[in-house]
Specification:
The complex is a heterodimer of chains A (425) and B (296).
Chain A: H1 2-30, E1 34-40, H2 49-62, E2 66-72, H3 75-87, E3 94-98, H4 102-107, H5 115-124, H6 128-134, E4 135-136, E5 139-140, E6 142-148, E7 151-155, H7 156-161, H8 172-182, E8 194-197, H9 204-216, H10 233-247, H11 257-265, E9 269-274, H12 279-285, E10 293-296, E11 311-317, H13 324-334, H14 337-344, H15 354-358, H16 361-364, H17 388-402, H18 409-423
Chain B: H1 3-38, E1 41-42, E2 53-54, H2 58-65, H3 68-98, H4 105-117, H5 120-131, H6 137-144, H7 161-186, H8 190-198, H9 203-231, H10 235-240, H11 252-262, H12 266-295
Antiparallel strand pairs in B: 1-2
Helix pairs in contact in B: 1-12, 3-7, 3-9, 3-11, 4-7, 5-7, 7-9, 9-12, 11-12
Classes of the chains: A alpha/beta (425), B mainly alpha (296).
Chain lengths: 425, 296
Amino acid sequence: MKKILVPVLLAVMTFSLFAAGQQDAPAADEAKDVTLTFASWSVREDRFSDYFEALKADFEAANPGITIEFAGYPYGELKKQVLIMANAGQSPDLIQSERGWYSSFVDGGYVAELDALLGPEYLAEVYPAILGDMKVDGKIYGVPWIASPFVMFYNKALFAEAGLEDKAPETYEEAMMMAEKLSALTDKDGNAVYGLGQSTASVPVSGSAVLSMFFSYGGGFRDASGNIDVINEGNRAALNALKEMHAAKYNPEGAKLKDLRNLFAIGRLGMYFDTLWGIGGAYAINPDIQGSVGVTVPLSGAGSPAGSSLEAHMLLVAEDSPNKEAAAEFIKFATSPEQMGKYVDIAPFLFPKANQVDGNPGYKSNPGIAPVLGYADTIRSIEKNPEMENVFLAMTTAAQSVTVGGMTADQALANLDKELKTLLK
Amino acid sequence: MTLKSKAGDKVFGTILLLPSILIVGGFIFLPVVQSVFYSFFNFKLTRKKMPLVWNNFDNYRSLIESGKLQNAFAITFQFMILVVLVVFLMGLIMSLFMNRGSSGERLTRTLTLLPWGTPTVIVALLWSWMFQAEYGVVNFILMKLHFISEPMGFLVNPDTALASVGVAAIWRQLPFMFIMLLAGLQGIPSEMYEAAHIDGASWLQSFRHITLPFLRNVIRSSILVTIITNFKQFPLFWTMTGGGPMDRTETLAILTYKNAFVNLNFGVGAAVAASWMVVLIAFSLLYNRIFKEAEY
């Protein structure tokens, strides 16, 4: 029996080794194939679905051996999901990130440095003010896909009804005077029209909008030496302006951006501040309004040059990705002038790179974009700190304090100063 | 029964209990201990290999110095007391009314249960829209009835935000209290009331000496569940107010979430959770003691 069993076992083992070798051989060939997982919230949006399918097909055709796999998450869940996956060792290769989350990803070491991966030629095309805003200790960990400051939209039809010239204001002082006339209007049902909308709700993006107002009045939260500097003339003037807007009922109380978009869409808001792509929310509610919407760059206040923090949807590469080069190739492809031209056809946003503007001649003459093409000059860089979302929330608290809270600007700034010194110590 | 067989029973019982002990220990006790442990260290969610550094109670100190912890405790208790009180009183009145066996009881009971079957996030979105200043139905009705002359931002006004979230919580939780109390009422033998009636007891006396003592256990457990639900209420606040305006709805749950999941500072988040856990345990012990004493 033993005499038979030993040769049989040897034969089985030899066959197994041979079979295993046969299995390994094609695996070695397949190793060239790469699948990139891209975590994104935009891929879930119906209006972009055709665009993303075409982007995937075009990229895969241009880069044989690389497959794109979209992992769609709801906007509010994406950051958390990516962090959970990264900590479980299953990080996606590419991450779509909100500008406000960037600091958390960088500080936690979840994303890769992109200077070498993208190369100086690519980065040289990004507007310097925007590239500067992306730098952390002089290095780039993410690039803007689409960008915008807090621009101002105005309703030309309401302007005409209020007897105002079809011309956007350039300063907050002008906007306040216009708001007075707009707020005297009512809609066809007799509801009040608001003159000037500035979001102050308890969400980080509203804090970024409030900070932009501080910038426009010459304020901010750091002095030239980098110390916390909140109690200053610029911030005081900005909060007093907000207080005035609230007292005169120009601004809806504690509104989120989506509330402002709703009111703007139904003709109950004359002017408001939002990202350029935010107006898409108003168009979705009332497509008829598109013909009467004007847009302008951030306003200046109290004689200071206009300023805004940068809002952007960014593209990041995970530090744990084994396919960083391929991921960088995808970023280059997705942000190429050709692909960006297709993307901007679906929703308005601003290109963060000069070659994207040059490569799309029709872009410059788009009436929804042309007035704000010079937006990069208004961008004020903000620090990359994982506490930034809380800093933004503290900004909204200051805004709420002078409006619904009835505090003076000085009281609100004293509280903000205390909070920021704790958050950013 | 011999001593040997008694010892054998104990061993057998322990073996039977062991899986439960391991599951409870591993999935409940261990994370709690770990959370308390982390509250004493600089512990941020990061991919970088960082050593745990004892920070000399800095997580607790910073929370107290900023006033955030005290504010969150005050807000949480205000909310909890408001909701529990209203839910209990309304639930009791409704259950007493329904226990009389009025017509259409089954339909009313089914309709009353609808809010309980609605997910809390949906409830939050629903009430956010209803309270909306410009196009919310609450403002519309109040203005039509001339209770207010102009729309109010219920959720953005620091004086009304907490109560407004409370209304949504009451709407969501009332059916639970109502059903529990109704079940308790239906378990009281009718002979007790008949005997009291023959003895000439008034409705109030019957309620005090029959209804309430019979309902004691139901009341105790229902209120405890409602207290815990509201103490850790998160989705309503996060969806409706995000902790604002001016931190007036920043409860302990919101403060924990902001620290742990917004800025990924799990050390501070754990410190809030640990403080909250200690208070909740003390509160539960006190609560049970009060009810126990009331029995004698």
